[in-house]
Amino acid sequence: MSLQAVIFSLGNEEYGIPIEDVQEITSISMTEIHPIPQAPEYIKGLITIRGEAIPLIDMHWRFGIKSEGNNSFAIIVGINDTLVGLAVDEVKEVRFLDNVSPPPALIATPFIGGIVNLPDRIIIQIIPKLLMGENEINDLNSLLS
Fold first, then answer.
1. pTM here?
2. Which of these CATH numbers, 2.40.50.180, 3.90.1170.50, 2.30.130.40, 3.30.830.10, describes 3-144?
3. 69: confidence class by pLDDT, cuts 50, 70, 90
């Protein structure tokens, strides 16, 4: 199985999102993030892209990876008809990923679609529409309405 993916990093780990799920990639600075009072922990705040307020999901928090506070990019994806930004450290490249293997049986995380073993690194394939549960999507939609 082969797919074209946007490769991004969180700390020392690398992940890939299928390119067809990516609406846009933008650089961000902390001054461009507007906090939302009483928002769940995983929401860093709102960013504005072409006049539209988009919630920014803290991918460090979502994946349980220690943050060094260096989220520099937002990958904009659609989740259940809602545009959200995924705050990541770096967008590394767009590339074809060949030989995507299913995740090992011990990995029960629904949003991990596969693993790619490259000679010098491992890339974990992410399925954006499964990043958030139904309750989280409802919470997000209630904050935006």
1. 0.89
2. 2.40.50.180
3. low
